[in-house]
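User: My collaborator sent over this chain with a note saying "see what the structure looks like." That's all I know about it. Can you take a look?
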Amino acid sequence: MAAVSGLGTTSNLPNFVGELFRLVPQDTPFKNLAAANGIRRVLSKQFTWQTTDNATAAQPNGLLEGADPTYAERDRAEVSNVVQIFQYGVQIAYSKLGNVQMLGSGGDTVATPAVSVLGNQPVANEIELQQSLKLDRCAEDMEVSMLSGTFQNPNDNVTGRKMRGIQTAITTNVVAAGSTDLSQDLIDELLRTMYGNRARFIRPVLMGPALQIQRVNAAYKFDPMSRTVGGVNLRTIVTPFGELGVVINRHMTSSTVAVFDFAFIKPVVMPIPGKGELFIEPLAQTGSALNSQLYGEWGLEYGPELFHGEITGLTTT
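Assistant: Without extra context I'll predict from the sequence alone. Here is the result:
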């Protein structure tokens, strides 16, 4: 199997018989958990949120009766991100649309009728199949972008926009493992660092690839209770900082685990007037083929980056 670039025809999209299995799962736990907060809709390709802090707590100096107060204010900081264009085209030749009862790509040999002892040719509409595959790919592309996207906000249309992923945004709470195995000590160090930087731990979830999540289980042992949020199964471990949800995510870097507080994370979309938020539409016809596209502009609001944290440089064997 390989990507078919450009026009889909009877020769490069041959038919076969039997049940059709999709080998790549639509697996987007980060996006699903973030969407449990709802979706922020914006009317600008760039959007912002704000943070503010306060002075470190301390016992006030001895204050005198009748004295004037000390005047001091706290400023605010702006955080921004952009909506990124997700666009996927499908172009299918007329012949391919009508050619549903021939197996293989044809040619000089006699084609076998689609009805055979092996089963039926299940793809009755090539456009619908290819569009559904694009929907799956778009969901996973969004997942990767929301996790590890590199920010790009050009001032012209020569370079495309890219959202900043949450892992790219994390700079305050980073624990470098130094090419060691994930352990309870490293996780405790990350949580302790986050706590010291005033992380809230309202809906914290530890997320990582399969090997690292296996090591989490070896270090803590999962609580027998689990729950489902947004279609994502959350296992639980108990730490000194409270219960921590644990989720496998195949799209995270193999050497990294992260703690995300999903109380502060939302997907962001810029709806297109008269079209929608993520839509499929026909495009201008060229020749004897039907053209269509899947289109949407999506980004991520991740709140204060110091409410999240990650461990990097873990061993992967």
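A starting point for your reply to your collaborator: The chain has a mean pLDDT of 91.
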